[in-house]
Amino acid sequence: MDTFVEVLLPIPLERNFTYILPEEMMGEVVTGTRVAVPFGKSKLYTGLAIRLHGERPQAYDPKPVYRVLDTEPLVSAVQLRHWQWVAEYYMCTLGEVFRTAVPSGFLLESETRVLKGPDFNPSPEEATDAEYLVAEALEHQPVLSVQEISDIVDRKNVLPLLHGMLAKGQIRLQERLQEKYNPKTARYIRLREVFRGEAALEALLETLSRAPRQSAIILQLFQLQEGAGKPVRSKVLEEKAGASRAALKALIDKDVLEEYHLEEDRVAVGEEAPDSRLPVLSSHQEQALTAIHTGFESGKPVLLHGVTSSGKTEVYIRLIEEVISAGRQVLYLVPEIAITEQLIRRLQRVFGTRVVVFHSRLNIMERAELWYHVQAGTEKAAVVLGARSSLFLPFADLGLILVDEEHENTYKQFDPAPRYHGRDTAIVLAGFHGADVLLGSATPSIESMYNVRRGKYALARMDRRYGDVLLPDIQLVDLSEQFRKKKMKGRFSEPLHEAIGEVLAARQQVILFQNRRGYAPIVECQSCGHAPQCPNCDVSLTFHKYRGELRCHYCGYHRALEPQCDACGNTTLDTKGFGTEQVEAELKELFPEARVDRMDLDTTRGKYGYQKIIGAFEARETDILVGTQMLTKGLDFRNVALVGIMNADTLLHFPHFRAHERCFQLLTQVAGRSGRTRERGRVLIQTYNPYHQILKQVSTGDYKEMYKEQVYEREQFRYPPVVRIIKITFRHKDYNRVSEGAGWFAKAMRQQFGQAVLGPEFPPVARIRNQYHMNILLKIAQGQPLSQTKNSIKRIHRSFDAISQYRSIRVIYNVDYI
What domain range includes position 14? Predict the structure, then answer.
């Protein structure tokens, strides 16, 4: 009887495919094992074995499995259950989750190789110039890659050429799997066994008496082996002996030395001998810890609402110690990798080599090795500190998930699918592992506090800063009054300018927050009013002065800024608005002695970009740090006496139902970077609306009042957390087609859901990367079955795809839209 295997492929397919398992592979495949399988005409993919069975598919003839890639399962049963939940809840395919969850180093894809065909004919009379070049190359080299052929004929797209030659029988194509992950190895040196005795070693040194460099290598190798008792790397031996690679190779060729390779770990680790003393907790922290334990005992996730600098990290460290002492693993989630630079040092000081970091800046090899450490449950991976993608790691025995700054919208994945929320996905993952969950924030999301009030979450509070340091003094500066009295210096009001001068004179540090990068968002001609637009998106181009270019922040298009207007040709260009780059430039003019640095997406693109900027600020090599919202996320600077918010109004007037909540959170968080040690810090907020209710709540730190107002408004207008929202986006390059298609979809949804359907509407930026977007919002009331609602939408989608003119429109689901 034949054995079949259901295989999950890392591509967006609604169903898994079944393959037949050859007899020689029997016993090698279990659930969670990777297999290489053919898909399509000739392509090979890495798939995941989901289920072995004896049922032959009726719709197609199953192809055989090409190769088994693992001796042990790469993915556990718990992971597969978690992936299935993510796919079902966030309305995507399991293949999309698979591609996101597994490091790309494990997803082998085949490379097309070109060989001579049965009718191979290199005659120049019968072939085009390009065909003749390929044929001539195949005469000298029997196998060529597609990239090599592209270089030979000097064309980017060579597929039409290859298809033509294939049809003539001049070439044939072959697929070969490319293994992306390779263990890191290093060269080591040792003496051949015959020379390891004392007498044999003396005889060897006598024979090398006329080769002093080779003798020095032997003696140095002997000393290194005696002293360390460890394998000796060839590179270390060369440096210590002061010898060249040639001298070392000569001894290897004489069979005196033996070169061998050992695998090395790419995963960075902390200190070997950490300071294992746990932090001493204050009475307020102890009370919070007790409340957290009580919440865990009730089986609920716990929300820790602690003001900025209240010492939440010390409480986290205590909890981590309790869990890893019991032999279980901890996942510590952070919203941005910027936070990890400081946090990893704090954790490694206590836990040493038991802490690892997982985020998008790791290369594919580092990700793969960390995967194996977590799967094996090694001591090195007892604590995993990472961004949202670390939720998909193969934890052996997960005991605790910490979600720091749980309110951050960066926990939500936007593109590509799965569009999951890290906080909510973490709670489900903890349920599968029987682990506890702690959500921490100084400004909890409305949803989390709403769940506390409804009894779904437990609550722990920390209302005082560590050491009873006072919360910062927050003042609102009226910009309209400052402009009227002509007291502005560039973008700086008189109070802010004076406060910066005082802080610098006291040798303390300043943070300035402006939530827009670049020099200016708009460049406008004073003569005709023309502003350069992106050719691919419906947005104006942002001016970046340090590069002298205009750049689109949506698609990446950029071009040099010309001195004259594109429309009228006059040289009367001026900038409107300002970003972090302009703030930095003005600071250097106003305070020429101050050392100014900038932290935004432009300055932190490199792997160690965050580390350099944060390290310099911590070491007080920087006096003033200008930045975007990266600055708000949990960073701890001990010498900051002043925080300035350049313009709070851009946050207040953003067209989104969460605008006021996010404004409160951002301003409170960035204000919390000030005065974290002994002296009380100062915060100056520049605004044209000093009497706005949200800004007053920020200045008094009144979270309860903000929460009460926001929940009331959302109850009136039916927005989360009172309802759930599914956002459906339609994308197509044709304006009329996307408009008609979205209108048809919305009409079908209204027949099913009535007035709960909003739209379709074009968003503020309707065209991105030459594709038009239209949105429909579906509001799902409490008590309405979520799974039935999603099934109804899927049925409408199937009918939508059955209409030929709408089939090319891309439909994207965003469940729990934020």
Answer: 4-106
Of 452, 468, 484, the one marking the end of a domain is 468
Cα–Cα dist 437/456, whole Å: 12
**HSE toward the beta carbon, residue 563, CA cutoff 13 A:** 1
Chain CA centroid to CA 404, Å? 16
Instruction: List pLDDT tens digits, range 785-802.
Output: 999 999 999 999 999 999
Helix (H) or strand (E) holding 297: helix 283-297
Say if strands 184-191 and 573-576 run parallel, antiparallel, or are unpaired: unpaired
Q: Tell me how far apart the alpha carbons of residues 127 and 133 are, in angstroms, rounded to a whole number.
A: 9
In the predicted model, what is the mean pLDDT of residues 359-381?
Answer: 84
- Give the lowest-confidence range in 144-148, 271-275, 762-766: 271-275
Q: What is the pairing mode between strands 329-333 and 398-404?
A: parallel
CATH of residue 786's domain is 3.30.70.600
In whole angstroms, give the CA distance from residue 342 to residue 335.
Answer: 14
Distance between CA atoms of 767 and 733, rounded to whole angstroms? 9
Buried b / exposed e over 55-69, threshold 16 CB at 10 Å, is eeeeeeebeebbebb
| Cα 578 to Cα 584: distance, rounded to the nearest angstrom | 11
| 183 confidence band (pLDDT: 50, 70, 90) | low
On whether both 626 and 536 belong to a single domain, the answer is no
How many angstroms separate the CA atoms of 590 and 576, rounded? 21
Q: Which residues contact 315 (CB under 8 A, 6 or more apart)?
A: 281, 285, 288, 289, 292, 304, 306, 462
Q: Is 749 helix (H, G, I), strand (E, B) or coil?
A: helix
pLDDT score at 228: 45
Is the pTM higher than 0.85? no
**Which CATH number does the domain housing residue 366 bear?**
3.40.50.300
